[in-house]
Amino acid sequence: MDILETDAYDKRQRRNMSCALLFSLLPFFLSSALYFYLWTPDLVPSVVSAGVKSAPTLLLAVVVLSWNGGQSVLGVAGGLIFSAVGDCCLIWPELFIHGMGAFAVAHLLYSVTFLSSRYATYSASSLNRFLYLILLIVGGAFYIYLFPFLQKAPNSDLLTPGVGIYFILITIMAALAIRTRHAATLLGSLSFMVSDASLALQVFKVLPPIEHGQIYVMVTYYLAQLLITVGDIKAVENKDDFSKWKRS
């Protein structure tokens, strides 16, 4: 009877936590909706537009800090803050390299988090190794495909190696997300890669102008950050549940 009561209590706790998490994410959903409502193709770069664009990411950082504490500044919360800096920089085309640098730091912080003790450690399986290989091939092939367009871009001497380093960092981040075996974390990392690939194809003029192209980039980007946030909170929650199980 005690075991059944404990199990029922744990289920109620998880349900309550899920509801609380959803409630804490409401500001993110509202600010994202505001961004898409106000966005137009001829949007003039301004401090206001930078604030509207970065607000959803900053609100996710607040959520992570409120759930996981101040130590997450050196993890996912810090990655979200640097992502918000990157959001602001990308409003102005001349700050593209600075924005890419901010996102590179974000990927480093995500990668460090995915290696931390809050995520359960699993031995590398054959499937994991196969997925690592797929990521490496896809990332490398995309960079090779992008290379001639990078050579034609302004500041190609900085962009060409910079984009290469960035692709390495985001690929490592996605590979470490596979290692965590958290569905939200993995899907978030892959969505981030899709978003960045879409952005690169447009910024470096690989494709002709795409109607609503920026919308595709931002939908996959906000989705990526949301999933990484939820994955990090759930990882801490699962670890706490496991600790309680070991003590009981």
Automatic annotation (TrEMBL):
<keyword id="KW-0812">Transmembrane</keyword>
<feature type="transmembrane region" description="Helical">
    <location>
        <begin position="44"/>
        <end position="65"/>
    </location>
</feature>
<dbReference type="InterPro" id="IPR012506">
    <property type="entry name" value="TMEM86B-like"/>
</dbReference>
<dbReference type="Pfam" id="PF07947">
    <property type="entry name" value="YhhN"/>
</dbReference>
<keyword id="KW-0472">Membrane</keyword>
<protein>
    <recommendedName>
        <fullName>lysoplasmalogenase</fullName>
        <ecNumber>3.3.2.2</ecNumber>
    </recommendedName>
</protein>
<feature type="transmembrane region" description="Helical">
    <location>
        <begin position="99"/>
        <end position="117"/>
    </location>
</feature>
<feature type="transmembrane region" description="Helical">
    <location>
        <begin position="72"/>
        <end position="93"/>
    </location>
</feature>
<comment type="similarity">
    <text>Belongs to the TMEM86 family.</text>
</comment>
<feature type="transmembrane region" description="Helical">
    <location>
        <begin position="129"/>
        <end position="146"/>
    </location>
</feature>
<keyword id="KW-1133">Transmembrane helix</keyword>
<feature type="transmembrane region" description="Helical">
    <location>
        <begin position="185"/>
        <end position="203"/>
    </location>
</feature>
<feature type="transmembrane region" description="Helical">
    <location>
        <begin position="20"/>
        <end position="38"/>
    </location>
</feature>
<feature type="transmembrane region" description="Helical">
    <location>
        <begin position="215"/>
        <end position="236"/>
    </location>
</feature>
<feature type="transmembrane region" description="Helical">
    <location>
        <begin position="158"/>
        <end position="178"/>
    </location>
</feature>
